[in-house]
Amino acid sequence: MVKAGLLERPGRGMLKITSAGVDVLNENPERIDIKYLEKYDSFKDFRVKQKGKDEEVSSVKASNSNIQRTPEDIIGQAYNGFEQSTRDDLLEQILKSSPRFFERLILDVFQAMGYGGRGEIIHFGKSGDGGIDGIINEDPLGLEKIYLQAKRYAHENKINIDQIRSFAGSLDEQGARKGIFVTTSSFVASAYEYAKRSPKSLILIDGEELSKLMYEYDVGVRVVQTIKLKKPDIDYFEEL
Questions:
Q1: DSSP alpha helices (H): ranges in the chain?
Q2: Hey, which of 1, 3, 56, 63 would disulfide with 7, CB 3.0 to 4.6 Å?
Q3: In this model, does residue 159 exceed pLDDT 60?
Q4: pLDDT, tens digit, for every residue of 24-42?
Q5: How far apart are CA 181 and CA 201, in angstroms?
Q6: Which residue, 40, 29, 58, is CA-closest to 1?
Q7: What is the second-level CATH architecture of the domain 68-240?
Q8: Hey, where are the domains in the chain?
Q9: Residue 56: how many CB atoms within 10 A of its CB?
Q10: DSSP SS3 for 18
């Protein structure tokens, strides 16, 4: 029900009903099962992704059924699971933050990736900003600028093509050629198609990609444990 947007997690081990969940209670359905939850796009997207992961895992298990797993394989699989869980938690934390904090977070991510030149990052994030939430320098001298728009949306609220058209229009007003649209949710297929057709350089980053970038570039995360894997140094044992 969390994936369907009926419940949310305000904190660790806590669940809170959403306005959509209250609507379901008022509707008083006979039962809430997978078939019922599939009326919500966010839940259907989750099921599609989960099915893909399950099929991938089944394929790996089938191909490795007669192969003994190494300690490195076991650690690698556990690490991947831990990373995905952390990335899911990151998105939940973002959804509980303010829109202004989210805009600042996006700028932090790009700065961590090496953008911003000499610290030149401009944060708008106020009414009347013309659909532009931030500007970053693509190079150290600021010869090329990238305009950003950030939307902190729930999983079920996808960014549509009209919003991308509007963002492109904002770039025209600024005389800009490059723009990045970031959201915690996702984009409809036509939005991606529009971005590809556009003469401008438009990059669309959804929630999955955003959490991946945050994890990779250490934004909003901290190292809790470091494990060193060691093997015998064969060169050390070679006798002259």
A1: 19-27, 34-37, 41-63, 71-96, 99-112, 161-174, 189-197, 207-216
A2: 1
A3: yes
A4: 888 888 888 888 888 888 8
A5: 11
A6: 40
A7: 3-Layer(aba) Sandwich (3.40)
A8: 1-67, 68-240
A9: 10
A10: coil
Tokens representing 112 are 């961590």
**For range 178-195, the mean pLDDT:** 95
Q: Specify the pTM.
A: 0.68
Residue 127's pLDDT is what?
A: 45
Place of tokens 């991947």: 80
What pLDDT digit, counting tens, does each position of 116-135 carry?
755 566 666 554 455 788 88
Q: Which residues contact 218 (CB under 8 A, 6 or more apart)?
A: 112
Give me the helix-helix angle, 189-197 and 161-174, nearest 10°.
30
**CA dist list (Å): 23 to 6, 7, 10, 19, 128:** 9, 12, 19, 6, 34
> Looking at this protein, which amino acid is placed at residue 17?
I
